[in-house]
Amino acid sequence: MTMRTLTSAAVFSAAMTGATAQPLTIYIGTNTPKTGPSKGIYRTALDPDTGQLAEPVLAAEAKNPSFLEVHPTGRFLYAVSESSPAGSVSAYAIEAPSGNLRLLNQQSTGGAGPCHVNTDHAGNCVFVANYNSGSIAAFPIQPDGSLGERGAFIQHEGSSAHAKRQKDPHAHSVNPSPDDRFVFAADLGIDRIMIYRLDAARAALTPNDPPCATLKPGAGPRHLVFHPGGQFVYVLNEINNTITAFAYDAASGALKEIQTVSSLPESFAGETTAAEIRVHPNGKFLYASNRGHDSVAVYGVDPASGALRLIEHETAGIKTPRNFNLDPSGRFCLVANQGADSVVVFRIAPETGALTPTEQRINIGKPVCIRFLQAVR
Q1: Domains along the chain with CATH numbers
Q2: Residue 149 burial by CB count (10 A; 0-12/13-18/19+): exposed, middle or buried?
Q3: Poorest-pLDDT segment among 20-29, 197-206, 326-335
Q4: What is the distance between the terminal CA atoms of the chain, rounded to a whole angstrom?
């Protein structure tokens, strides 16, 4: 496909000023196998009118920078290196006007196989989930964007019903509450959403009361997302391919289950695992990806109850969608095809939330995570 060239200076300037008519800078985390084409973190740009993507450019060379998060100021980026036995998290400065990344420093995550990184909304600290060893960590962010020494490290304990995948804890994501008072850690291995109180000034985490929310045995909670209104939380369960909706009590941090629905069509009987979950910026729609069924499921969200209603399963051009993201305006959905070495673009119908292929795509080796410079959490 022939693509219009977008200059890095224009892309970066538009992203920093928030101009919606200009290209939006995007960073893509990848896996970097020894024999593969990927070398680290890439940047591209989305035309917010047409959905066109610029050819990807290497922003920083790195080993397995699978998951990324952009600092709320848009000045820094954080990436985990998904490696064992010792994982790490790196801090980068986002340089103007190129949008390239300059390494500031790196810290050990204290565990193996870090698979998720996040920041609090105020930009004071970074959280990391270590999948292989089942632990989480928090780091203070220094004034220059670099990471200080770990302020918290918590080792999860326990197991659950799945004989192969739940013998031990496997922390899979770490998310702050909208007001940064709590941190929620989804642990696939123990079927729990662990809840911690956050002292952001010290990057300290302490167990909350209640300490957790429990999923159905064998569910395998992976990622979670808050509704833009703050009253609901949605958890994507990787192993049994379901989505659990919770009512959220902002005063206590407690989660109360509302509903659990399948992320798959009723007729599907093959092997598959759920991967990513997002809520549309307008709060009316929810999206979840399936690897194996190779789809993005689309749901309507009831504004009063938070309950989900299936709209469709989109499969066109999708292969092993480990991650996807919605642009800040909510007009486009970008899907990272880890199994097809590509990122593809869908237009979002404003009235129904349904996805329509745009035929816009870029080739990139083993894409794992998509983040906009104006991030949509």
Answers
A1: 111-372 (2.130.10.10)
A2: exposed
A3: 20-29
A4: 30
